[in-house]
């Protein structure tokens, strides 16, 4: 049996999460093929060919896939993937967008956000905002799966020497069109890949106050995240939301500042190695998961932290 | 223009669920149930489109047990015009639900289907995309803005890197994200009125669909508990612990 891994990329470079998905594919077993679909993305295919454990790379380079439109990508993956036992994508907004379409086109059930592989047909996945872990078994001939990056240690980006084969499958459903994109630009590490994450909540009071967190983050090489309340209030953009319905992070150190610790927020960060909470309310539920809790006013504690680093 | 809004009855988002001792699932006995929060956002969006004069009829639907009538009534109190219950005691899964919805789409011919991006029980995030694939409709998932004009819908989507806007031909499927709107509460007069709105019940067999689950749950366990930590007295102590004890900075 062989596994098809859908590469996550921006047409220029392979995204790190693909290495976690390949790790999940290795745990399943069998030959690993990586499919790179995009526009002007040959360099990505070359990168994918070097990834440890990959035996073949398929490159579908066409304008129809340039913006990862789900309608087109799903048609492609369903056609290419029908000869595989497993189709894996990252549980990112790209993977979540097209993978269920693929499953429906193949008339198979789908397994979302696996965090563990028990065997080729049995997987672990969090449900109820991570308050329960289900072990699920698929009876379908093709298993369509999204992989939670934090559940699998990345394979090496080097060491492989797969062949790259261009495929000439053009699927353009013609029903959707890319209009525009507003991508956050930041020199800080990406939230889901950072070793240290500092997040601010409603307690930050406004967007300007996040500057305090950025200063600390830059000293530590950290990424900055936020609670839903901080995003809803417009302090920071949506791509910074950590939680059940935002991004899932599991850094070595997670610092929650002015965040109460609602279950939906905990769902996105409680697998972090070390958790620090800074909150003025000593009853705040975030302290129940924090390794180190500091009961303090953040407007005093954060500048002091900055000065002591 | 007609909108179909599929919704789901789930555990209230404030409830911290417990796993059953026999590992067969989570304990839902005597637990508060509610409309899935993302579905509330979907209903609200449909109602706003109706208030703007874009939409003329809102049909709300759920695939689930008889008890889900409660959530259908809530949706009608919020502004949906009528409801359909596809009644089943089966533990529903996205592919089966999408097939039932497809059958309803064929019957009702909506111009737009608006549903939540995920239900907060199984956290699958699949049904809207599956329905779109089965019906050949385009999809605008994780929507934070929806504009209907000239036979098209433009959807701004919350993606990992920021925001993306796509334009879809109608009919289309839209799945809602948190920032799309802030749902209203139902007023008492509207709750009373909703009791008189039509609610049809159909069976999966009427629709010719098979809801047998494709994915089997072998067991459900509680997550690993975190060890209780300590409180530090000062920023100085915190920095010391992080450097010398946890060794993470
Ligand atoms: C369907 C659904 C999905 C959701 N998804 C997510 C998600 O993905 N991520 C997420 O985060 N939330 C999510 N939520 C929201 C979640 O339930 C909480 O509402 C949210 O996490 C609260 O954010 P907060 O902790 O910043 O705000 P609050 O709960 O208001 O907490 C603010 C905290 O700041 C502290 N504080 C205030 N001032 C100071 C100060 N000067 N110094 C120190 N501390 C201070 C307070 O003591 C308080 O504990 C979701 C909710 C729903 C219904």
From TrEMBL, chain B:
GO terms for molecular function: electron transfer activity. It holds the Pfam family ETF. It comes from the Bacteria. Keywords: Electron transport, Transport. InterPro entries: ET-Flavoprotein_bsu_CS, ETF_a/b_N, ETF_b, ETF_beta_N, Rossmann-like_a/b/a_fold. The keyword Transport applies. GO terms for biological process: carboxylic acid catabolic process. SMART domains: ETF (SM00893). Its cofactor is AMP. Residues 23-211 form the Electron transfer flavoprotein alpha/beta-subunit N-terminal domain. CDD domains: ETF_beta (cd01714). The electron transfer flavoprotein serves as a specific electron acceptor for other dehydrogenases. It transfers the electrons to the main respiratory chain via ETF-ubiquinone oxidoreductase (ETF dehydrogenase). Belongs to the ETF beta-subunit/FixA family. Heterodimer of an alpha and a beta subunit. This is Electron transfer flavoprotein subunit beta.
């Amino acid at each position: 049996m062989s596994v098809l891994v859908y590469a996550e990329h921006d047409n220029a470079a392979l995204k790190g999460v693909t290495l976690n998905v390949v790790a999940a594919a290795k745990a399943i077993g069998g030959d690993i093929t990586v499919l790179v679909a995009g526009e002007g993305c040959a360099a990505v295919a070359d990168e994918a060919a070097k990834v440890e454990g990959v035996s073949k790379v398929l490159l579908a380079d066409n304008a129809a896939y340039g913006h990862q439109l789900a309608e087109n990508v799903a048609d492609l993956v369903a056609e290419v993937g029908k000869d595989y036992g497993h189709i894996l994508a990252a549980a990112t907004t790209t993977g979540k967008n097209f993978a269920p379409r693929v499953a429906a086109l193949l008339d198979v059930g789908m397994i979302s956000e696996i965090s563990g592989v028990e065997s080729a047909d049995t997987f672990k996945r969090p449900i109820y905002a991570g308050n329960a872990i289900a072990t699920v078994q698929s009876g379908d001939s093709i298993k369509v799966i999204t992989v939670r990056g934090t559940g699998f240690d990345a394979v090496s980006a080097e060491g492989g020497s797969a062949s790259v084969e261009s495929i000439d499958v053009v699927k353009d459903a013609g029903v959707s069109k890319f209009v525009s994109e507003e991508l956050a630009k930041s020199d800080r590490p990406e939230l889901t890949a950072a070793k240290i994450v500092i997040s601010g909540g409603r307690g930050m009071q406004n967007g300007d106050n996040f500057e305090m967190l950025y200063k600390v983050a830059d000293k530590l090489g950290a990424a900055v995240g936020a609670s839903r309340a901080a995003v809803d209030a417009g302090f920071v953009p949506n791509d910074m939301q950590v939680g059940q319905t935002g991004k899932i992070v599991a850094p070595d150190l997670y610092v929650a500042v002015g965040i109460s610790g609602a279950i939906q927020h905990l769902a996105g960060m409680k697998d972090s190695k070390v958790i620090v909470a800074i909150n003025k309310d000593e009853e705040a539920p975030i302290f129940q998961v924090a390794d180190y809790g500091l009961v303090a006013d953040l407007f005093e504690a954060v500048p002091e932290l900055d000065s002591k680093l | 223009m007609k909108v179909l809004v599929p919704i789901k009855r789930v555990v209230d988002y404030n409830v911290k669920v417990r796993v059953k001792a026999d590992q067969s699932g989570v304990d839902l006995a005597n637990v508060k149930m509610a409309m899935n929060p993302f579905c509330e956002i979907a209903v609200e969006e449909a109602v706003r489109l109706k208030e703007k004069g874009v939409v003329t009829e809102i049909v709300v639907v759920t695939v689930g047990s008889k008890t889900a009538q409660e959530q259908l009534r809530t949706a009608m109190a919020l502004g949906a015009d009528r409801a359909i219950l596809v009644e089943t005691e089966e533990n529903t899964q996205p592919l089966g639900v999408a097939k039932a919805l497809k059958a309803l789409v064929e019957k009702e011919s909506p111009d737009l289907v608006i549903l939540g991006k995920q239900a907060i029980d199984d956290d699958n995030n699949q049904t809207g995309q599956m329905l779109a694939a089965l019906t050949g409709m385009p999809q605008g998932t994780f929507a934070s803005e929806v504009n209907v004009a000239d036979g098209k819908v433009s959807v701004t989507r919350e993606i990992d890197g920021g925001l993306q806007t796509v334009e879809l031909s109608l009919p289309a499927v839209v799945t809602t994200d948190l920032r799309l709107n802030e749902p209203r509460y139902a007023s008492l007069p509207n709750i009373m009125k909703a009791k008189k709105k039509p609610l049809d019940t159909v069976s999966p067999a009427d629709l010719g669909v098979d809801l047998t689950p494709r994915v089997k749950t072998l067991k459900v366990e509680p997550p690993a508990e975190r060890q209780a930590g300590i409180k530090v007295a000062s920023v100085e102590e915190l920095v010391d612990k992080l450097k010398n004890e946890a060794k993470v900075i």
